[in-house]
What does this fold into?
Amino acid sequence: MSLTTPPHTPKPPTPKTRNASHAGTWYPATPTALKQQFAQLPQTHTKRKGIKAVIAPHAGYAYSLETAWTAYGCVDASELYE
It folds into this structure.
């Protein structure tokens, strides 16, 4: 992934959306490429009850996606909505 100007032409924003300002730099530029990147991540995690907070990186996906994905994936969210 390049950290330069996105290779695509962004769609103009609508009243309900805005352009993804970092598409193609901090994360993939297209929905297809983004879905492919997420599809390569592990889809199962050991859920842990009682987690009160998550400290996870939030830099560009090339640097931190796998670590953040694992950290958030371990949260047993069923307790959050009881």
